[in-house]
Design goal:
The chain is mostly helical and 203 residues long. It is 75% helix and 5% strand. The termini are far apart.
């Protein structure tokens, strides 16, 4: 029962962020976009907060896997342990008030920027940040990290008139870092597989 509750909280977090993103993009007006974006982000943050608190309180990990998604790369796998729960708690604690504050804050964007895009990228940004501490394999971690980076970039670019040329340097550095991380992860995975095969052969 406890495992079902935490798994439901994890699924609710992901679904709420995705629903907030899609609903914002399809909203018929800026006012509707503001409120549906805030609702999705707030519910997603509450789901993350509930999940993190449950794991920290019980010490019991929660797992959720989708092996049929991108099977060739190992599938999508989420697992939240105590360390991940601590970081998810911080993300959710900040995400909830940010969602509420976003409603009056983005009112000034009416007629200047697309609030549907702002709501879309804000929810995807929170989703990406929440996936990173829950990632159970390299593929899931990279997807969460890339989602977080792309969404944050477009959030910053919303006010493109205030963005400096440092954005290009930031993009290059982040991409280079991700390439190094992916290369290192692949090498570790290859070394682990080789070690496992050697150990099996020895027996």
């Amino acid at each position: 029962s406890r495992m079902t509750t935490t798994s439901t909280a994890l699924a609710s977090m992901v679904v709420a962020y995705l629903a907030g993103a899609v609903a914002s993009a399809l909203a018929p007006s800026a006012r509707v976009a503001r409120y549906v974006a805030a609702a999705g982000a707030a519910v997603g943050s509450l789901g993350g907060l509930t999940l993190a608190a449950a794991v920290l309180a019980t010490g019991q990990e929660v797992q959720l896997a989708f092996p049929d998604l991108l099977t060739v790369a190992g599938g999508i796998a989420l697992r939240l342990d105590l360390l991940g729960a601590f970081f998810l708690l911080l993300i959710s604690i900040v995400g909830f008030p940010a969602a509420l504050y976003g409603v009056p804050y983005t009112r000034a964007y009416d007629g200047r920027y697309s609030l549907g895009v702002v709501g879309l990228t804000f929810n995807l940004f929170l989703l990406g940040m929440s996936i990173v501490p829950c990632a159970s394999n390299v593929l899931t971690f990279l997807l969460g990290w890339e989602l977080m980076w792309v969404a944050s970039y477009f959030l910053v670019m919303t006010e493109s008139d205030r963005v400096s040329a440092l954005n290009l340097n930031c993009r290059c550095e982040v991409r280079a870092g991700m390439r190094r991380l992916a290369t290192g992860s692949n090498r570790l995975a290859s070394a682990s597989t080789a070690s496992s095969c050697t150990g099996t052969g020895g027996r």
